Amino acid sequence: MTDLQSLxxxxxxAGALGLGMSVQFLGARARAAAPGLxxxxxxxxxxxxxxDGLSVSPPVGDPNYAALRGAIAIPGFGQAGGALKLDxxxxxxxxxxxVHALAQAGQARIAPAVATPDRARSHFEAQxxxxxxxxxxxGVPSGWLNRSLEAMPARPPAMSVGPTAPLILRGRIExxxxxPGEGSDRDTRLPGILQDLYAGDPMLxxxxxxxxxxxAMARTATADARATLTPASAxxxxxxxxxxxxxxxxxxxxxxxxxxxxxxxxGLPQARQLGATLAGFMVQSGGPQVAAVSVDGFDTxxxxxxxxxxxxxxxxxxxxxxxxxxxGLGPAWNDTVVVAATxxxxxxxxxxxxxxxxxxxxxxxxxxxxxxxxxxxxxxxxLAQGRLFEDRDTAPTLDMRGLFKGxxxxxxxxxxxxLDATVFPDSGGVAPATGIVV
Amino acid sequence: MALDPDLSAAIAxxxxxxxxxxxxxxxxxxxxxxxxxxxxxAQGAELPRGNPEPSDQRLAExxxxxxxxxxxxxxxxxxxxxxxxxxxxxxxxxxxxxxxxAGPDPRPDAQAGSxxxxxxxxxxxxxxxxxxxxxxxxxxxxxxxxLASTTDGDxxxxxxxxxxxxxxxxxxxxQTATLVGPFENEAIRPRVFGRFEDLLVASSSxxxxxxxxxxxxxxxxxxxxxxxLGRGDSQPGLNENLAREILELHTVGVEAxxxxxxxxxxxxxxxxxxxxxxxxxxxxxxxxxxRPMAHEPGARTIMGRRYAEGGQExxxxxxxxxxxxxxxxxxxxxxxxxxxxADEPPPALVAALERAYLQSGGDLAHVATALVQAPEAWSPQxxxxxxxxxxxxxxxxxxxxxxxxxxxxxxxxxxxxxxxxSAPSPKGWDESAETWCAPDAVVKRMVxxxxxxxxVLAGRDPxxxxxxxxxxxxxxxxxxxxxxxxxxxxxxxxxxxxPEFQRR
Lengths: 438, 504
Hints:
The structure holds two protein chains of two kinds.
Chain A: H1 2-7, H2 12-17, H3 23-30, E1 41-47, H4 53-56, H5 65-69, E2 84-85, E3 91-92, H6 97-104, E4 108-115, H7 123-132, H8 144-150, E5 158-161, E6 176-178, H9 190-197, H10 202-228, H11 244-247, H12 268-283, E7 290-295, H13 310-329, E8 336-342, E9 362-367, E10 398-399, H14 400-412, H15 416-423
Parallel strand pairs in A: 1-7, 1-8, 4-10, 5-6, 5-7
Antiparallel strand pairs in A: 2-3, 4-9, 8-9
Helix pairs in contact in A: 8-15, 9-10, 10-12, 12-13
Chain B: H1 5-16, H2 24-28, H3 32-37, H4 55-74, H5 80-89, H6 125-150, H7 154-166, H8 174-177, H9 180-188, H10 196-204, H11 207-212, H12 224-229, H13 241-250, H14 260-270, E1 273-275, E2 288-290, E3 300-302, E4 305-307, H15 312-324, H16 326-340, H17 347-359, H18 364-373, H19 388-398, H20 407-415, H21 433-436, H22 439-456, H23 462-470, H24 476-483, H25 488-497, H26 499-502
Antiparallel strand pairs in B: 1-2, 3-4
């Protein structure tokens, strides 16, 4: 009960519902966890559309980079719109200013040539494999992040951001979901009546209970996010694409169809707010320890841009969500790991329409106060003639599952047997990456 | 048919149609299958009464707008940042629609007609134009929802919506936002009961699709166009996006086992499929235009078949073979059954539709008839969880009402994760209960149901509305819960949120 009360300062909603609603969160807290692990947090960003690793972490020191990329090459260190330096070879896209600041503090690293086992270059197959953790498409109907919860004795609570449930968090363990919007902040009888009505309907019953419990938390989280994002603490020097116009056009509604406004007009303040609100959930007692966030719009077949342009806008958005998350987590950032991964990378060469087509390996970002300081994760195959996969894409040197396994093992204490057998089925031959977490 | 006529009527209207309007079940009851088959007609689906401007006109206006914007930027009339943003608005992408804030924009300058430039003096003409373009699309969204909420041919409308989703074009750029409505009306709706091949060609040659999947600017690398247009590093060339999605999503599907080489070859065959521009001589601005100079010369081999050089005909020949492929028959049959009947399609029903497709040469009227005639499609258990759009439409129908403002459609759908005209990828909207029965979305449905009840009930008896909408599908448990409600509005919300109304 104490946990439930702390979830909802109002408590009224909980009272109206009876106690059925918070079973997931309460249950999780009741179980004993291994010492220390209960504070560890993991956030997985699923970057949909095929995020271009060669622009996220441009290998500007690779002798073939500029020629392959032509007009979309990110300029070298120190040049206008140039890459933000990580080491002699790699930089970060100039829109990833917050990530770069973290890297300088030893709290961000890149895995520059990581890929799932899927090679079909289909968004849908590759996202399925990325999220299911299976060795091939349609291998498993649930997500690896959900199955990893099953493998942890404490069964930590989890949450996805967005009104639909992403595959990565689907499965036997009930995960919460949340998206920005108006809540049902009223005392009506309806939730209680519906809970009764759904008694014989497990799908609706679980969804409603979880949704109501999350909503109670959301009020607290939103309040915390507001406190975090006072004007004084909001980062001043936003990325180049953080234009005043974008900031003044939130993705709300106004008369005459702003609902159809291209979604990229979702401004950076909203992105930052989203990250801070997620953090607000995660720092609450009983809040999610594990979260999944989808960011899309990375399918840059045309007009990809370099330091500015559509990919830059998307990366600035991602950077702002991360910024809000870091600020909102406060001291809890030191116990946090963030992984941002995509279903595949893109072609090494610029295509005929100023963009890039579906490729193979890409960059995964690893962030967090819990991260071990170090260089790139995995090997860099280079972009040399003959080293490209099928003479086309960055060649994979690291299996995505190995990267995820390393994070789950070192950060959340998931045991090797579960990682090989259930979290990533039939993956005994894929070793966990090591040396990621302190 | 062994089923009780009342249950048959309820299934016909909720599973194959868009949900019963008051009084509709009584009409359907005499012959539920006949009611469905009578809606299959050669001229296709109805056209929503939205903005009547066709796509070529809208595209021409958009091109003028883009030109104006460039000039405005050149003159420095809009500040640098706003100019950059306008450019970005013409590009692809954006955060997940999942993350859309659904709340109204609280700021005064967000209201229509008061678009002030940063600094707050004269209205910014670029932003005003953008707003007008979005308003056009909003009219289309509203008209489509009104048609769905009121039509008596609601199987036909559901069938059309299936094909609109199969051939997804999404409003992920300002330009395509204005074209989704015309695309559905011009390419899809007239052909949904015709031959699939014609539908495929109409979709693949429509400017909306050519823009959405980047085909319009794809240029054969070994062509005159590539040599003329090449400048600096922005060498024009191949874009394989549409070719890949035609194979993967629109026709044979990944299980057909094509290779990267097949995708690239098909992309080469499709080079030249483009759109008429202002500079073209023949007044075909904004319409499909084949550009021989951009078409990669030579024969192509795709999935083991050789296609002789033939200009525009080459890709048409490929599409003809794709449409005739048994893989396509299976892919379409599977998707149809998954949409209409169950997330896990019964194999016998899929096989029946496959046969109907192949035996009729891909005649979609034939396939639609096979669907409604198949006993497996009439299982009493409702297995499909409604998508947000289906839920809203069936609710309006049950209440005998229709939305009167675009906000009543778009804002709500945003919050539930189904932003109008904005499927998250070319694959279209997901079909599965797991996706839509998420905790957050169920709470939002509940809140919306209460709001709708407060708005539209007007003293009517919710028990009667539930009987009118669900007929024999209404269970005693739910009927009792509605009758015990403290207020009529509460009863209506219980009905809308009942497990049987949430499914179809």
